[in-house]
User: What shape does this take?
Amino acid sequence: MKFAKIVSIVIVCAFSSGALVGCTPVNKVKRTLSLNNLHIQAGVADDQGDDQAAYDLWTEYVDRRPHSPMGEYRLGKVETRLGKYSQAAGHLQIAHDLKPGNIEYLEALADALVLSNRTDSLMKLLSETITEGDDGSGYLRLARYAQQVGQMDEAREALLSAVAQDNGQSVTPYIALADFANTLGDQEMEIQNLRYALWFDRSDQVILHRLESFGMIAGPSLAVQP
Assistant: This one.
C-alpha cells in the first residue's frame, strides 16, 4: 500500500503542471535546453530570411526570457523588416536601454524611428547619445540621420560640432562636411573641406579627383591645414 502511494506521488509530480515549473532539477534543465533550442531555431530562421518564422520564434523567446538585450534586438530587427516599425522601436529601445553604448542597437533603433516617422523621438535619442561610440562619432551619427529626415540645419550644426571636437586630428569630419555641402550644392564649402581633407593625405586620389571636377589643377599644393 505504501509502495502504491509513493508511485502515485511520483506520477503526480511528473505530470502535473506545477511540477513542470520546478518539481525537480531535471525539469529545470529541460526547460533551459528548450529555450536554447528556441534561440537556435530563431537564429536559423533569421539567417535564412524566413522573417515570419523568425518573428514568431523571437517573440516566443522574448516572452520567455524578457529583457534579453540580444533577443529584444533580434526581434526588433525582424519587426523592422516586416514593417512593424512601432513595435520594432519598442523592442530596440529596450535593447539599447539594457546595453547603452552598443552602437549596433542604437542605430537599429534610430532606423526604426526614421521609418515610423518619429522625428522628434529620433533627434532626442541622437542628442542624448552623442557620447556613445568613438570620439566624435556621435555628432557624425546625428548629422547623418538628421539629413535623412530633412533636418538640414541640425545636420550642419552637428557636423560643425564634429569638426570642432576633432580639432584637426582626422580626415573624417571634413569629408562628411564636404559631402554635406555637395548635397546642398554649396561648391565653396565643399572645396574648402576637401582641401582640409587633403591635408591628411596629399596623394588621396578620390579627393584629388573631386577637386579636379571643379576645374582645379590637382596637386599637393591644394592641401590646407585645418
